[in-house]
Amino acid sequence: MLELLTCSEMAAADGRTIAGGTPGIVLMERAGQAVAERVLARASGRLRVAVLCGPGNNGGDGYVVARLLAKSGHDVAVHALVPPDRLRGDAAEAARGWAGAVLPLEGWTADGFDVVVDAIFGAGLARDIAAPVDSVIAAVNESRAHVVAVDVPSGIDGDTGAVRGCAVEADETVTFARRKPGHLLLPGRMHCGRVHVADIGITDATVADLGVRTAANAPGLWSDMLPRPDAAGHKYKRGHLVVASGGPSRTGAARLAARAGLRAGAGLVTVASPPDAVAINAAQLTAVMVRPVDGAEGLADILGDARFNALVLGPALGVGEETRRMVEVAAAAQRHLVLDADALTSFAGNLAGLWQMVTSAVPSGVVLTPHEGEFSRLFGEAEGVAQARSKLERARAAAAASGAVVVLKGPDTVIAAPDGRAAINENAPPWLATAGTGDVLAGIIGGLMAQEMPAFAAACAGVWMHGAAAAAFGPGLIAEDLPEMLPRVWRELLELLFSTGN
Ligand SMILES: NC(=O)C1=CN([C@@H]2O[C@H](COP(=O)(O)OP(=O)(O)OC[C@H]3O[C@@H](n4cnc5c(N)ncnc54)[C@H](O)[C@@H]3O)[C@@H](O)[C@H]2O)[C@@H](O)CC1
Ligand SMILES: [K+]
């Protein structure tokens, strides 16, 4: 159930289900039933419900909801954007099932309603909201009624999560078959409230046949690729991660990443330190080792030892030629690579160089972990990025343009692979946005890759574990706390794996 369907994939799933013998009106009836159940679940007495219906099938769902709630004894008012005789197909049929009055949507006010059912626009939203719907949405958002959105809050683009002009702020959203990207991407996610997924009879096989490439990031996506504790395990079998440190005044970021890599399960972790920063690093490291490594040449020397199988390059490493050469050396040596921060910025405006570096590292896999600023410096000019309609599409275009797995960070981090797979993360609490947490993320992903977890799976798992660690700690978190929460996250993950028999 982790797949996320675009509006056109959802339409295809509807179409195939209808072609398979389930009439569209039956799907609409089930959709309306699921929404009505959410409203009824809250009812302790007679509710005054406003059902706001648009001109398409989302409005059709609304008429079904209205009929079912009235039948259950609630006081229902239908307000519609167009008169029922202007509806077509299933929506027209659903409207015929509503015996009550249909009042205009224009000028609707929230007075006295306990519940608003938002069935104005769903997957068919095609342009920005204009008058008169804009003032109705404003009235919905100002009202104290409980707002239940059908499929998506009206005004939210289901594919991108964008607000088209203005959008309903729902308390609950009932969607069908699977969630859509717009339920997870910001700002859409903030408008949905709690999201329920209702089964309307679209089978798993129908969804599987669509070849969906987008998923919500959760353990089910990658748990079978997680490194497992092995009784016969040996630290040398769990990889040796190298994290490059900046100069004497810029060493903290590498140590954060290194500790996170160790907690993520890498067998050994070494901080590769400029010689003049070795004393500083050594004074603050215990389980993590430190080794003097002088720039790209020094790195090439130590990579003669095949046991150093994964590297994190970038946190506070410095922007420029030397950093770029270090990245190129590591890529040419075909090590698993996580590139963050300064390593990314060192390739700004040099997409061709980035591509060349990534392709020389193949098949080891390269993961890039830019935040928005680094992303635009790196990929602003890349094919498909400027035209992309959403964060999801931008990350996907960047992965295709670079050949690397791209982790585009933020409250709705998107992880995209060059082959088109993508995942949207949703477990990051707001307090994760604090200094140094990006270094920790790079370290976790590097630690998983050191254990030979494939790049896309390691990136997805790393992002999820990072969010779970922050959620487990709670507010007040600083970056140093994150690695210390990983044992708890591991325990929960492993319990989950054993309980599901994976
Ligand atoms: N058989 C199906 O395909 C099913 C569809 N379902 C519902 O159908 C919805 C999709 O229905 P539709 O494709 O008819 O799309 P919508 O009902 O979301 O809206 C399409 C209509 O709105 C108009 N419109 C779009 N943007 C507008 C704007 N900014 N201002 C004014 N008018 C605008 C369009 O011209 C069109 O008339 C789903 O969200 C879901 O609620 C469910 O009933 C389940 C089954
Ligand atoms: K809606």
TrEMBL record:
<feature type="binding site">
    <location>
        <begin position="57"/>
        <end position="61"/>
    </location>
    <ligand>
        <name>(6S)-NADPHX</name>
    </ligand>
</feature>
<feature type="domain" description="YjeF C-terminal">
    <location>
        <begin position="218"/>
        <end position="493"/>
    </location>
</feature>
<dbReference type="InterPro" id="IPR004443">
    <property type="entry name" value="YjeF_N_dom"/>
</dbReference>
<keyword id="KW-0418">Kinase</keyword>
<dbReference type="GO" id="GO:0005524">
    <property type="term" value="F:ATP binding"/>
</dbReference>
<dbReference type="GO" id="GO:0046872">
    <property type="term" value="F:metal ion binding"/>
</dbReference>
<dbReference type="GO" id="GO:0110051">
    <property type="term" value="P:metabolite repair"/>
</dbReference>
<dbReference type="GO" id="GO:0046496">
    <property type="term" value="P:nicotinamide nucleotide metabolic process"/>
</dbReference>
<feature type="binding site">
    <location>
        <position position="439"/>
    </location>
    <ligand>
        <name>(6S)-NADPHX</name>
    </ligand>
</feature>
<keyword id="KW-0521">NADP</keyword>
<dbReference type="InterPro" id="IPR029056">
    <property type="entry name" value="Ribokinase-like"/>
</dbReference>
<comment type="function">
    <text>Catalyzes the epimerization of the S- and R-forms of NAD(P)HX, a damaged form of NAD(P)H that is a result of enzymatic or heat-dependent hydration. This is a prerequisite for the S-specific NAD(P)H-hydrate dehydratase to allow the repair of both epimers of NAD(P)HX.</text>
</comment>
<keyword id="KW-0456">Lyase</keyword>
<keyword id="KW-0067">ATP-binding</keyword>
<feature type="binding site">
    <location>
        <position position="151"/>
    </location>
    <ligand>
        <name>(6S)-NADPHX</name>
    </ligand>
</feature>
<keyword id="KW-0520">NAD</keyword>
<comment type="subunit">
    <text>Homotetramer.</text>
</comment>
<comment type="function">
    <text>Catalyzes the dehydration of the S-form of NAD(P)HX at the expense of ADP, which is converted to AMP. Together with NAD(P)HX epimerase, which catalyzes the epimerization of the S- and R-forms, the enzyme allows the repair of both epimers of NAD(P)HX, a damaged form of NAD(P)H that is a result of enzymatic or heat-dependent hydration.</text>
</comment>
<dbReference type="InterPro" id="IPR036652">
    <property type="entry name" value="YjeF_N_dom_sf"/>
</dbReference>
<dbReference type="GO" id="GO:0052855">
    <property type="term" value="F:ADP-dependent NAD(P)H-hydrate dehydratase activity"/>
</dbReference>
<dbReference type="GO" id="GO:0016301">
    <property type="term" value="F:kinase activity"/>
</dbReference>
<feature type="binding site">
    <location>
        <position position="154"/>
    </location>
    <ligand>
        <name>K(+)</name>
    </ligand>
</feature>
<feature type="binding site">
    <location>
        <position position="58"/>
    </location>
    <ligand>
        <name>K(+)</name>
    </ligand>
</feature>
<dbReference type="InterPro" id="IPR030677">
    <property type="entry name" value="Nnr"/>
</dbReference>
<feature type="binding site">
    <location>
        <position position="438"/>
    </location>
    <ligand>
        <name>AMP</name>
    </ligand>
</feature>
<dbReference type="InterPro" id="IPR017953">
    <property type="entry name" value="Carbohydrate_kinase_pred_CS"/>
</dbReference>
<keyword id="KW-0630">Potassium</keyword>
<comment type="similarity">
    <text>Belongs to the NnrE/AIBP family.</text>
</comment>
<feature type="binding site">
    <location>
        <position position="118"/>
    </location>
    <ligand>
        <name>K(+)</name>
    </ligand>
</feature>
<feature type="binding site">
    <location>
        <begin position="409"/>
        <end position="413"/>
    </location>
    <ligand>
        <name>AMP</name>
    </ligand>
</feature>
<comment type="similarity">
    <text>In the C-terminal section; belongs to the NnrD/CARKD family.</text>
</comment>
<dbReference type="Pfam" id="PF03853">
    <property type="entry name" value="YjeF_N"/>
</dbReference>
<dbReference type="GO" id="GO:0052856">
    <property type="term" value="F:NAD(P)HX epimerase activity"/>
</dbReference>
<keyword id="KW-0511">Multifunctional enzyme</keyword>
<keyword id="KW-0547">Nucleotide-binding</keyword>
<keyword id="KW-0479">Metal-binding</keyword>
<feature type="binding site">
    <location>
        <begin position="122"/>
        <end position="128"/>
    </location>
    <ligand>
        <name>(6S)-NADPHX</name>
    </ligand>
</feature>
<keyword id="KW-0413">Isomerase</keyword>
<dbReference type="InterPro" id="IPR000631">
    <property type="entry name" value="CARKD"/>
</dbReference>
<feature type="binding site">
    <location>
        <position position="253"/>
    </location>
    <ligand>
        <name>(6S)-NADPHX</name>
    </ligand>
</feature>
<keyword id="KW-0808">Transferase</keyword>
<dbReference type="Pfam" id="PF01256">
    <property type="entry name" value="Carb_kinase"/>
</dbReference>
